[in-house]
# Entry
Amino acid sequence: RRQIVWPIYMAGGNFEFHYNASKVSYEQLDLFWDDLARARRFMEALPFQDMSPQNSLVDRGFAFAKDNEAYAVYLPSGGAVHLDLRNGSGAFKAQWFNPRTATYQDAGDVQGQAQRSLTAPDSNDWVLQVTQALGLSKEYYVDSSVAQSGSGTVTSPLKTVQEALNRAAAGNTI
# Structure
């Protein structure tokens, strides 16, 4: 299921699903709907409308990016990926998104203007998210103040610079 949805999103597409209710029930598709919802929430935290398929930036997997701002790379079977950030400047925040649980794992900070190698946490499918480190000049941010759950790290997107400024003024981590 995920191996179908993620490449479509990384190509800039959306997913429509038509099914024959006489052959399969809506409930039988619950796991698929969950996968689709997790993928959509991930993509909504990015400037999706400004991004484009850019598989030439990686040596494997599927890449979707807006140069110097946001990069998403889907790896169907984990492993290492080389991401070309030569057109990017400054610091970037890298996170691994688990498409099975909708949780994030910190992958550290990386610098632009070079090719970077990052390795997924295991051999399952993972999505690498690399976004410009918070300089309050971008429209989209991922909240780095995280709520820990029993299954990993949960983050929520900040949609505007004003929201980021409000959170910072209130003493919250952004």
Summary: The two ends are 33 Å apart (CA to CA). Helices lie at 2-10, 30-44, 161-169. The first strand starts at residue 52 and ends at 53.
